Amino acid sequence: MNEQPILSIVTATKGSFSDYWLEQLLKVKGNVQFILVYPPDTPIKPIDDKRIKAIVSPYKGEVMQRFTGLLNVTTDYLMALDDDDFVHPDILECTAAYFQRFPESWVLRLKIENIDYKNEQRIQQDWQPIPDIAQLEICKKTPENPFPFQGGNYKGLLEVPIAPLDKNFDIRHALIPWKHRTDMEGIHFENFNNRVWRNAIVQPALAELSKAMRIFGALTWVPLWNLDRSLGLFVQATSFEKNKIIGHAMPKPEQVRYITKDASLKEARIHLTADTLLVKTYPQFGYLWNLFFWELYAVPKVIGKSLKKKLVKQV
Asked: Which of 118, 173, 270, 272 makes the best surface tag, with the fewest CB within 10 Å?
């Protein structure tokens, strides 16, 4: 009898992913479950691999599609991957080794290499072997070594603390639009995607996010974008413990290749609606209010860029 998979890779897709991307995804070794979530009324690509599970979301949009996929995860561990990014073919072995060594960890932060979408040679470069997790030393931030992560050149597993959500709200973010936000800097992180999470930690956060989407009665608000950061912070807020070490960050070489594009090629997206769900659910955390006002003042910039792009197309 086949063993049940322990890792699910969830991808929200419009179905327009390249043949090369799919080919590389299916090179991931072992009994991994791939969950592809399509929007309504979209043809599902036939794929000859029993590890693929195709789901149709009830609504279109990154939030609902990925949310639907994550709710359907039954494995112990999961990760979210976009349909133009790439993950190391040995990610299952890496996941099993890490959580065997650290069974109480929430998350394994994978090493990400940002690569321009036109750099095909680098995108298609052979993967280097993942370091032996059992042999890696633990790196941590101490008064004597405050920046072990400087330049991302740490050699071992770097301890990752929970986001400092209990920081005080800085009123300057509400009053001064150009006040630079710095509380997100450091070893902690906000985003959910491209990390391996323990499913038992993620599911309660999904339940809280679902509650936050309800306005009153049957009326529900589902943002189109930004589940990446919102869910990463929902997970940490739902199970918040001050100064807790929630996982570790992997050293080089990379385990994820994140494909970047010029800003002019990206769709303009307003993230505030998703961030509003955070402060609605966890108003006690000043860190989230700092984020909220930072994104609030970003809205006119996003709208301006979108209008400028439309005018350029019309010329």
From this structure: 118
How many other C-beta atoms can be found within 10 angstroms of the C-beta atom of residue 171? 13
Q: Which helix (H) or strand (E) holds 84?
A: none
Residue with tokens 């979408």: 117
Q: CB atoms < 10 A from the CB of 301, how many?
A: 11
How do strand 86-87 and strand 77-80 relate by DSSP bridges?
unpaired
Which SS3 state, helix, strand or coil, does residue 196 take? strand
Q: What is the CA radius of gyration of the chain?
A: 20
The DSSP line for 207-240 is HHHHHHTEEETTEE---SS-HHHHHHHHHHHHT-
Q: How confident is the model at residue 307 (pLDDT cuts 50, 70, 90)?
A: low
Q: What's the DSSP call for residue 43?
A: P
Contact 35, 65 (CB under 8 A): no
**Contact between 172 and 297 (Cβ < 8 Å):** no
Q: Where are the domains of the chain?
A: 7-209+227-262
- Are the C-beta atoms of 263 and 308 separated by less than 8 Å? no
Packed helices 62-71 and 199-212: angle between N→C axes, nearest 10 degrees: 130
**Reported confidence tier of residue 269, pLDDT bands at 50, 70, 90:** confident
Burial (CB count <10 Å: 0-12, 13-18, 19+), residue 81:
buried
Reported as type and span, the H/E element at residue 112 is strand 112-116
Q: Does domain 7-209+227-262 have CATH number 3.90.550?
A: yes
Secondary structure of residue 81 in the 3-state scheme: coil
Report the 10 Å Cβ neighbour count for 26. Answer: 15
Question: What whole-number distance in Å separates Cα of residue 12 and Cα of residue 36?
Answer: 6
Residue 158 scores a pLDDT above 90: yes
- The enclosing H or E element of 257 equals strand 256-260
Q: Is the pLDDT of residue 59 over 80?
A: yes
User: What's this model's pTM, rounded to 2 decimal places?
Assistant: 0.93
